[in-house]
Design a protein that fits this description.
The protein is α+β, with helices and mostly antiparallel strands.
Length: 96
């Protein structure tokens, strides 16, 4: 869930993905307001084998197969605080 002040502009972002025994950093174009699952789907060709976000529930927050950890304070500041439902779902997620 994005802060209401976010606009629908496209911005470059860098994503670091832990994958097997390595960590890969990819530069992508992200439309502000899109979920990270939508970002992964739109950039599937670039992500290739690194696109391990299943999104089994279609992004309806029912399965936690596309959860991510946000380490950048700048990016975290663009997000609202997680809802109780989000926190409950994350409690069931696999932690690397």
């Amino acid at each position: 869930f994005w802060k209401k002040s976010a606009t629908a502009m496209v911005v470059p972002i860098s994503i670091k993905i832990p994958y097997r025994t390595e960590s890969v950093e990819l530069n992508l174009q992200w439309k502000v307001g899109d979920s990270l699952l939508e970002l992964a789907k739109k950039n599937d060709e670039i992500l290739g084998d690194y696109n391990i976000m299943e999104g089994a529930c279609g992004g309806n927050m029912n399965c936690c197969t596309c959860h991510v950890y946000i380490s950048s304070p700048d990016f975290r500041n663009m997000l609202d605080e997680p809802s109780v439902a989000e926190l409950d779902m994350i409690d069931m997620a696999f932690e690397p």
